[in-house]
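Consider the following input, taken from an annotated entry for Nitroreductase (Caballeronia insecticola).
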Amino acid sequence: MTHRPASTDVEIHPLIAGRWSPRAYADRPVAHAQVLAMLEAARWAPSAFNAQPWRFVVFEKTVDATAFERAFGTLISFNRSWNVHAQVLIAVLADTLTSKGAVNPGACYDTGAAAMALLLQAHAQGLAAHAMSGLDADAFRAAFAIPARYEVQSMISVAHHGDAQTLPAALAEREHAPRARLPMERIAHFGAWPESDR
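Applying the prediction step yields:
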């Protein structure tokens, strides 16, 4: 299932409503040009003081299978189980220091914005992309000699959409389950913080 638009309370742009995190992947290559377009979208994300703290380490299965497998090995076992047909892995890192060596308090926030731009571009290209926090960040850091100033945020897997029936039954069911989010009143407060959440 490739088309699962969110049932929103207020109309939003179809690109945003349509983006979701599938697990059913097809075992066929993703074009390098599509990978570059995703990274270009991320490059133009907003950031405080235009610091651009995001960094990406990209692994394309068809380009360097050995590096891809090393990165794949840092995923937790659950994520390895459904990513067998992933074609691209993109590690998302945040540079926690400014150009002057001070701590950048907005680094992770800004990096998240860049990652979202990347995910939206993947969706716009008809690709399946799924961001995962389930990886061994220390193992990834050691495997690829990542300097201490860069915080490993997540791993994004990318592929063409596949058949959900190839997934284990529980995951196949989740591919078709209704999408849900917290209600607006739980996430947005107008004018003041509600006493009920104090």
